[in-house]
């Protein structure tokens, strides 16, 4: 088993070290992580500038690679051939804050695993609901234990093609953890506020400020599981198609339309949408 371990908090983050150490039990571990924090950086593919990669050592002396690219760039580099050995699983984290609901497309932690799916490699993203606690003060023991249990299950059962797992762990001692629940995405409640300021030259500039997001703790969701003291494992795919809308839209009366193109009137073919 060859596991690529990455994160979005940077190669020196304590959660990355804890995760890399926790994955060593499964076989070869290659660490390829960003050289700085990419929190909230989303799914990035850096195409307009070169990417630099350096050899570094983690705090325990183990070798690692770091790149000036995003977390998803690190995974792409690794799976495109920077890592000589075939990668069987991408594991990303341990993020010091939860990634729930709509967070998943903002999250560098989660989008790193999404990149692996694009290259046909399954993955697991792991986040600890550390809230406002400094990442250096968090105890990652529980999150590592949950991550290892999830990876064991993935090794035993496999994952359907295109499916990856988003794991969120409550920030409780291991003996307080009530268990692991398989969940769906819940509803994140963002409390962002526009912070407008003026610089010394009289020009306005803005911060996206506000308070940390909360969520709706509905049963069966990732938000609900954490609220009840469970770790949450949410199976996700990259297919964002709204299949219900597809069915409904096929009922719309798409009229014959004519569009003029370069002065030519082109009758639009009858618009039909792919059936789900
Ligand atoms: N819209 C907001 N999102 C926030 C805020 N604080 C945190 N977040 C979420 O954080 C994660 C970052 O994830 P990471 O894996 O990239 O570290 C991301 O999911 C955001 O949604 C906030 O104040 N506003």
UniProtKB/TrEMBL annotation:
Free-text comment on the cofactor: Binds 1 divalent metal cation per subunit.
EC numbers: 3.1.3.5
Any GO CC annotation of this UniProt entry: cytoplasm
Catalytic activity entry: a ribonucleoside 5'-phosphate + H2O = a ribonucleoside + phosphate
Keywords: Cytoplasm, Hydrolase, Metal-binding, Nucleotide-binding
Superkingdom as given in the UniProt entry: Bacteria
Residues the record lists as binding a divalent metal cation: 8-9, 39, 95
Any single Pfam family the record assigns to this protein: SurE
Survival protein SurE-like phosphatase/nucleotidase domain segment(s): 3-191
Cofactor annotation: Mg(2+); a divalent metal cation
Compartments, as annotated in UniProt: Cytoplasm
Main location: cytoplasm
GO molecular function: 3'-nucleotidase activity; 5'-nucleotidase activity; exopolyphosphatase activity; metal ion binding; nucleotide binding
Function comment: Nucleotidase that shows phosphatase activity on nucleoside 5'-monophosphates.
Protein family: Belongs to the SurE nucleotidase family.
PANTHER family in the record: 5'-NUCLEOTIDASE SURE, 5'_3'-NUCLEOTIDASE SURE
The name this protein goes by in its record: 5'-nucleotidase SurE
């Amino acid at each position: 088993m060859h596991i690529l371990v990455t994160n979005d908090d940077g190669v020196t983050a304590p959660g990355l070290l804890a995760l890399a150490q926790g994955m060593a039990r499964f076989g070869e571990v290659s660490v390829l992580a960003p050289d700085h924090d990419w929190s909230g950086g989303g799914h990035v593919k850096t195409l307009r500038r070169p990417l630099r990669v350096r050899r570094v050592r983690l705090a325990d002396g183990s070798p690692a690679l770091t790149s000036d690219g995003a977390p998803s760039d690190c995974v792409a580099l690794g799976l495109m051939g920077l890592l000589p050995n075939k990668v069987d699983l991408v594991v990303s984290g341990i993020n010091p804050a939860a990634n729930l609901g709509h967070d998943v497309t903002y999250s560098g932690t989660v989008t790193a695993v999404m990149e692996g799916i694009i290259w046909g490699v399954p993955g697991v993203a792991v986040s600890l609901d550390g809230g406002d606690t400094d990442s250096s003060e968090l105890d990652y023991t529980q999150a590592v234990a949950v991550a290892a249990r999830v990876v064991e299950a993935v090794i035993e059962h496999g994952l359907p093609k295109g499916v990856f797992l988003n794991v969120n762990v409550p920030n409780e001692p291991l003996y307080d953890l009530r268990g692991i629940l398989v969940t769906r995405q819940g509803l994140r409640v963002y409390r962002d506020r526009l912070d407008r300021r003026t610089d010394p030259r009289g020009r306005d500039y803005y911060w996206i400020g506000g308070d940390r997001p909360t969520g709706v703790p509905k049963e069966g969701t990732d938000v609900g599981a954490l609220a009840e003291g469970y770790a949450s494992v949410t199976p996700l795919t990259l297919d964002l198609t709204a299949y219900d809308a597809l069915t409904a839209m096929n009922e719309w009366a798409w009229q014959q339309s004519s569009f003029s193109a370069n002065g030519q009137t082109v009758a639009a073919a009858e618009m039909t949408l792919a059936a789900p």
